[in-house]
C-alpha cells in the first residue's frame, strides 16, 4: 500500500452540510493486518470496500508498534478530516516484530501500549501522520501509563479546538477510565494533559471506548462500554462536551455476550441515528446495530448480513466508524482506489 503524505492545504475548504451528503464512509481495521480499511455505502445499509478489500494504509507504515487498531474518522468544522488510532499490534511477537508478547513487562496489563496515531487530510486520500506518546508528553501523571486505547475526536465549540478522548490505564494495577485532551491545530500532538471525561459510579468496573455524538437540541449523547458481565453499551447525555454525569444503569445492546466500540451516526435526511458496535464474543466476529429517534428508546437492527445492514466483499471488520461524505468525495475515493 502507498501512503500519500503531503502538506495539508493552508486554506480551510468549504464545509458541506447534511443536505450536500450522498454517501457514508466506513473506516475499520482487522486483526490479521492491523491496518486501515475503508468502505462506502450510498444508502446507509449496504457497504462495499475500497481497494478491493485490501488496506488503504498499512499499519506498519505509520505506527511505532507497526500496527494500528480502533480507527475513528471525523470531519471537523474547518473542513479537514481527522483519523485517530491506537498504536498497538497485539500479534507483533507472532509476526516477528518483537521478541516479547507486549512492549513492556506484563505487569502493565493487556496491550500495554503508550501511543496514539494522529492523521489529517483535506481530501481523504493524502494524509499526514504523527505519533503522540502519552507517557512522554505528560510524564508527571502519565509516565508509567498502562495503556492508551481507542482515541476519538470531536470539535469543542467552546474553545474552537479538536478534542481527543480515549481510554487510559493510568498505572499498572489501576482500572481503565475515559479521559479527554486537546490537539494542536496541525493535529500532530496533544497540547493539554488528559483529564477525566467522567468517573463511573462503581470503582471496580472498567470503562472504555467512548463515542460522543451531537444531538439536535445542542446536547451530547455519549455511548461507552462498561466491562460488567457481560461487557456492553451504556449511554449518558450532557450539555457539556467534556463532562458527563447522567448515569444510566441499563445496557442498550441486546447481545448475550460481550461487545465494545460503539459509534453513533445519523441517517442522511432522516431523524434516525444508528448505534453501531463491535461484538467480540461471537464467531465469526461481527457488528451489531441499534437505531433511535429520541436517544431513549433503541430498536435492534441485527448484525451485518443477518438483518438490514449488509457488507459485501469483506468480513469481520473491527472497531469501526461511519461519517457522511458527498457524492463527489465518494466517487473520488472509488476512482482513486480502482
Number of helices: 3
Characterize the main sheet: 5 strands, mixed
Query: Which percent range describes the beta-strand content?
Result: 35-45%
Which parts are unreliable, with pLDDT below 50 for 5 consecutive residues or more? Answer: 5-12
Describe the structure.
- The chain has about 350 residues and is mostly beta strands.
- The protein is built from three helices and 20 strands.
- A five-stranded mixed beta sheet has the order 19-3-2-1-20. Strands 4-5-6-7 form a four-stranded antiparallel beta sheet. Strands 8-9-10-11 form a four-stranded antiparallel beta sheet, with no helix packed on it.
- β2 (about 35-40) and β3 form a beta hairpin.
- The longest helix is centred in the last third of the chain and has 10 residues, at about 325-335.
Features:
5-stranded mixed β-sheet, 4-stranded antiparallel β-sheet, 338 residues, globular, mainly beta, single chain, 40% strand
Task: Write the SSE topology.
Blueprint: E1 21-29, E2 37-41, E3 46-49, E4 68-75, E5 81-87, E6 115-121, E7 127-133, H1 134-137, H2 139-142, E8 147-156, E9 161-169, E10 177-182, E11 195-198, E12 207-214, E13 220-226, E14 232-238, E15 260-266, E16 273-279, E17 286-292, E18 299-303, E19 310-311, E20 318-326, H3 327-336
Parallel strand pairs: 3-19
Antiparallel strand pairs: 1-2, 1-20, 2-3, 4-5, 5-6, 6-7, 8-9, 9-10, 10-11, 12-13, 13-14, 15-16, 16-17, 17-18
Brief description of this entry?
This protein has helices spanning 134-137, 139-142, 327-336; strands spanning 21-29, 37-41, 46-49, 68-75, 81-87, 115-121, 127-133, 147-156, 161-169, 177-182, 195-198, 207-214, 220-226, 232-238, 260-266, 273-279, 286-292, 299-303, 310-311, 318-326.
Amino acid at each position: 500500500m502507498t501512503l500519500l503524505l503531503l502538506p495539508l492545504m493552508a486554506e480551510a475548504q468549504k464545509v458541506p452540510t447534511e443536505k450536500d451528503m450522498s454517501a457514508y464512509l466506513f473506516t475499520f481495521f482487522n486483526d490479521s493486518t492491523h491496518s486501515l480499511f475503508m468502505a462506502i455505502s450510498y444508502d446507509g445499509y449496504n457497504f462495499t470496500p475500497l481497494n478491493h478489500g485490501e488496506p488503504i494504509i498499512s499499519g506498519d507504515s505509520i505506527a511505532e508498534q507497526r500496527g494500528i487498531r480502533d480507527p475513528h474518522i471525523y470531519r471537523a468544522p474547518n473542513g479537514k478530516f481527522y483519523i485517530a488510532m491506537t498504536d498497538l499490534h497485539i500479534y507483533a511477537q507472532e509476526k516477528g516484530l518483537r521478541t516479547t508478547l507486549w512492549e513492556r513487562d506484563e505487569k502493565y496489563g493487556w496491550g500495554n501500549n503508550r501511543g496514539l496515531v494522529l492523521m489529517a487530510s483535506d481530501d481523504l486520500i493524502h494524509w499526514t501522520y504523527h505519533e503522540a506518546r502519552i507517557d512522554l508528553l505528560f510524564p508527571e501523571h502519565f509516565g508509567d501509563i498502562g495503556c492508551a486505547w481507542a482515541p476519538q475526536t470531536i470539535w469543542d465549540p467552546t474553545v474552537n479546538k479538536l478534542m481527543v478522548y480515549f481510554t487510559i490505564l493510568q498505572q499498572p494495577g489501576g482500572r481503565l477510565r475515559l479521559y479527554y485532551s486537546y490537539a494542536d491545530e496541525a493535529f500532530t500532538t496533544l497540547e493539554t494533559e488528559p483529564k477525566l471525561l467522567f468517573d463511573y459510579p462503581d470503582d471496580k468496573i472498567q470503562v472504555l471506548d467512548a463515542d460522543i455524538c451531537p444531538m439536535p437540541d445542542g446536547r451530547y449523547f455519549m455511548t461507552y462500554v462498561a466491562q460488567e458481565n457481560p461487557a456492553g453499551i451504556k449511554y449518558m447525555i450532557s450539555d457539556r462536551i467534556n463532562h458527563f454525569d447522567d448515569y444510566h444503569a441499563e445496557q442498550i445492546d441486546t447481545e448475550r455476550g460481550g461487545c465494545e466500540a460503539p459509534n453513533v451516526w445519523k441517517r442522511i435526511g432522516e431523524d434516525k441515528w444508528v448505534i453501531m458496535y463491535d461484538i467480540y464474543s461471537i464467531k465469526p466476529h461481527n457488528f451489531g446495530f441499534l437505531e433511535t429517534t429520541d436517544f431513549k428508546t433503541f430498536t435492534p437492527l441485527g448484525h451485518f448480513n443477518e438483518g438490514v445492514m449488509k457488507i459485501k466483499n469483506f468480513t469481520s471488520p473491527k472497531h469501526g466508524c461511519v461519517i457522511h461524505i458527498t457524492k463527489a468525495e465518494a466517487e473520488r475515493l472509488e476512482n482513486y482506489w480502482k
